[in-house]
């Protein structure tokens, strides 16, 4: 079946007969043809909603027999068509819920569709939190782990995939598998960070960390990014430094003549660093600012730690209320070798159009054991994220042009893109460059776990 061939009558009849699977066409299928990025449009013949693993296995079996492409999707918050079908069927995984906590082992077991907010509500009742959580707590655990999962504890704990103890998945070969770092390693390496191209995550066991009741945050202003990055690297391994979040922050200075002679807005860029410790009753007896080189302490606050985890809710509410959520989101996230990043970012960030906003994240990422195909540069590592709240249509070409140049510069110093972002329609050469020496293993894993090549999306379908 080609990408655009409609389902055969037999395939359609068999699909509708699978117990525990609801199938929708028309407007509901149209909904999975786009994602949060808003830059690609796909095509779905249907959206299928499995209620349990057996229904998912039957769907995979049918897809293999009838050569129908399947695209896993939970919330569709990715930005380059990762969860958008290019023909075939969108597989809505939102029914995979349920949470149980084992406080003695500090482990949470949850369905892949559970949100980080639901998970934190359950773990915090035991004084525990997921080791790494994204800034947006609405994201699904499964969708996040299919990209990697970065948050403000990543400077010590790496990506969220590194805290996966085990998971249950249905592979593209139709096999139901329990995998983990020591168990079915080939499935662990491929499915986590695998953008739904190797199998469906159904249930996950995540390692938890102790959660102090109170989070104390110092908000620091830096004269320049290089000094801020040096300070981030100075304190990132300190046990008291639970959250660490750096920004590039702009003070607008009117307009000046740009490189092409046209007048453009410009800014003086500063660094902003939020350094947080957690505690129950008494704060640790350390001075978190000792030896740092900030210009000013802008603010210090104590927050309830669960409330602190949801500190960006306001930003997402603002995006929805102003219509920015409906605009396009060419987000660019990249991990970089820290020394090269310290030299490049102070030069690169001022070249970005100011309508991409300020508040670009600049944060260290720990090099901890992880699945083999979650690619990071050689440590020490700094992560950069350019996350405009929304780009209005007339500015789209300028934004994409600037981000393309940023992408090239970042990859030029050995950066590795975070795969949930806007990836500029990668071809085989781009995937080869991304996976480097692991490219052939990555291709072999696809052949092993999805031998019929049924797991596809707009991002991965040949153009
Ligand atoms: C406002 C906003 C804030 C964000 N903040 C962060 C952040 O702080 N940290 C961070 O790391 N990321 C962040 N992201 C990016 C986010 O992690 C990814 O976009 C993530 O993939 C979204 O989860 P989702 O449920 O929407 O997945 P979808 O977009 O539905 O899917 C993403 C990918 O995972 C696959 N997939 C989905 N569900 C499954 C499953 N059950 N099994 C197998 N494959 C599956 C899809 O095929 C697709 O390739 C943010 C995104 C948005 C829009």
Q: What's a quick, concise take on this entry?
A:
The protein contains 14 helices and 18 strands.
Describe this structure in words.
With 463 residues, the chain is of the alpha+beta class. Among the domains are: 99-210, Uridine Diphospho-n-acetylenolpyruvylglucosamine Reductase, domain 3 (2-Layer Sandwich), CATH 3.30.465; 214-417, 3-Layer(aba) Sandwich (Vanillyl-alcohol Oxidase, Chain A, domain 3). It has 14 helices and 18 strands. Strand 5 (99-102) and strand 6 form a beta hairpin. The model has no long low-confidence stretch (mean pLDDT 96). It binds flavin-adenine dinucleotide (FAD). Flavin-adenine dinucleotide is lined by residues 35-36, 71-78, 82-83, 93, 112, 134-136, 139-140, 142-144, 146-151, 195-196, 200-201, 316, 420, 457. Flavin-adenine dinucleotide binds at residues 35-36, 71-78, 82-83, 93, 112, 134-136, 139-140, 142-144, 146-151, 195-196, 200-201, 316, 420, 457.
């Amino acid at each position: 079946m080609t990408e655009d061939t409609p389902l055969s009558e037999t395939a359609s009849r068999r699909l509708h007969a699978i117990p525990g699977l609801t199938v929708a066409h028309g407007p509901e299928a149209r909904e999975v043809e786009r994602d949060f990025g808003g830059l690609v449009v796909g095509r779905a013949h249907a959206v299928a909603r499995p209620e349990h693993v057996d229904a998912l296995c039957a769907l995979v079996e049918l897809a293999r027999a009838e050569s129908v492409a399947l695209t896993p999707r939970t919330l569709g918050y990715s930005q380059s068509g990762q969860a958008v079908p290019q023909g075939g069927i969108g597989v809505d995984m939102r029914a995979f819920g349920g949470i149980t906590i084992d406080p003695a082992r500090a482990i949470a077991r949850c369905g892949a569709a559970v949100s980080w907010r639901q998970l934190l509500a359950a773990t915090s009742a035991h004084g525990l939190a997921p080791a790494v959580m994204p800034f947006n707590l609405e994201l699904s655990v499964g969708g996040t782990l299919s990209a990697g999962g970065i948050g403000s504890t990543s400077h010590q704990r790496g990506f969220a995939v590194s805290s996966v103890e085990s998971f249950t998945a249905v592979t593209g070969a139709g096999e139901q598998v329990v995998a983990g770092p020591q168990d079915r390693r080939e499935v662990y390496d491929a499915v986590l960070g695998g953008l739904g191209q190797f199998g469906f995550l159904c249930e996950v066991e995540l390692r938890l960390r102790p959660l102090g009741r109170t989070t104390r945050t110092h908000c620091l202003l830096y004269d320049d990014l290089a000094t801020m990055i040096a300070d981030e690297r100075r304190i990132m391994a300190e046990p008291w430094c639970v959250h660490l979040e750096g920004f590039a922050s702009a003070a607008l200075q009117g307009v000046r003549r740009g490189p092409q002679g046209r007048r453009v807005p410009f800014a003086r860029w500063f660094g902003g660093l939020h350094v947080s410790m957690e505690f129950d009753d008494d704060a640790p007896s350390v001075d978190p600012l000792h030896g740092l080189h900030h210009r000013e302490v802008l603010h210090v606050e104590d927050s309830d730690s669960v409330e602190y985890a949801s500190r960006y809710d306001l930003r997402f509410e603002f995006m929805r209320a102003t219509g920015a959520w409906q605009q396009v989101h060419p987000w660019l996230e990249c991990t970089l070798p820290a020394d090269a990043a310290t030299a490049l970012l102070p030069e690169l960030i001022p070249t970005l159009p100011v309508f991409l906003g300020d508040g670009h994240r600049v944060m260290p990422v720990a090099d901890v054991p992880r699945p083999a195909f979650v690619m990071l540069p050689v440590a020490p590592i700094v992560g950069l994220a350019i996350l405009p709240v929304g780009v209005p249509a007339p500015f789209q070409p300028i934004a994409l042009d600037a981000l393309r140049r940023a992408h090239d510069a970042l990859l030029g110093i050995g950066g590795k893109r975070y795969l949930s972002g806007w990836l500029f329609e990668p071809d085989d050469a781009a995937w080869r460059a991304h996976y480097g020496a692991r490219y052939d293993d990555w291709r072999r894993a696809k052949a092993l776990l999805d031998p019929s090549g049924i797991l596809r999306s707009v991002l991965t379908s040949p153009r």
